[in-house]
Amino acid sequence: MSTSEGSAPPFIDPDAWVAPDATVAGDVRICAGSRIMNGARLVAEGGSTIRIGRNCIVLENAVIRATSRHDCKIGDHCLIGPNTHVVGAEIEDEVFIATGAAVFHGAQVGHGSEVRVNGTVHLRTRLEPGSTVPIGWVAVGDPARILSADQHEAIWTIQKPLDFPGFVYGVDRNAPDVMKTITQRLSESLGERQVTAAGAPTVPGL
Questions:
Q1: Strands 145-147 and 138-140, how do they pair?
Q2: DSSP letter, residue 8
Q3: Model confidence over 118-138: pLDDT tens digits?
Q4: How do residues 80-102 score in pLDDT, each as one tens digit?
């Protein structure tokens, strides 16, 4: 299903394919040769953009999101595995994001990198080209440190100054009622979405 949010409909190259039960919503551009498989969700919210390069494969139940503060770009020849979550990040060419991995807002994943099963690339983290995040490990910081998930204190020491609430939602971590503020803002912004089902126009050569 392709839908538009406001005045920005998706654009799908004639040589791309989107499964009938996938969702492509908002200002999303999908280039030639790319395949969006069953149950995948590509959603560009609040005037943001998603760009999917050439010959990318987005497998079942993957979620790729952009928000009003963070666009999302996937380069050419990328494989986005099942049940992955990529939001507001930049993925360069020939990257493999394996099953269940997560890549967060403002992250940059360099050319030819791999984020293996259940790996995490945290917000504002920069992975150098050719990097590997092992199964279940966490990449955090700029440049990234790659740490096992049991090293919580070391991860938090780097992650805390990256300021998830401020960078993602514009909310001061130390303000009172942080979660009330975040969820109220999200409720209001998501409630304003005017999603109208429509067939996606195609753009030759996109």
A1: antiparallel
A2: B
A3: 999 999 999 999 999 999 999
A4: 999 999 999 999 999 999 999 99
* 183 phi and psi angles, rounded to 5 deg: -70, -35
For tokens 């440049």, what's the residue? 143
142-183 residue pLDDT tens:
999 999 999 999 999 999 999 999 999 889 988 888 999 999
Strand-strand pairing, 63-66 and 41-44: parallel
Which residues are registered as beta bridge partners of 51? 29, 73
Which residues partner with 108 through β-bridges? Answer: 90, 126
| pTM listed for this prediction | 0.88
End-to-end CA distance of the chain: 20
Tokens of 142: 């700029």
Q: What is the DSSP string of 132-176?
A: EE-TT-EEETTTTEEE-TT-HHHHHHHHGGG-HIIIII---TTST
Q: Write the burial class of residue 201 (CB in 10 Å: 0-12 exposed, 13-18 middle, 19+ buried).
A: exposed
CA-wise closest residue to 38 among 4, 1, 10: 1
Percent of the chain exceeding pLDDT 70 equals: 89
For residue 181, the SS3 value is helix
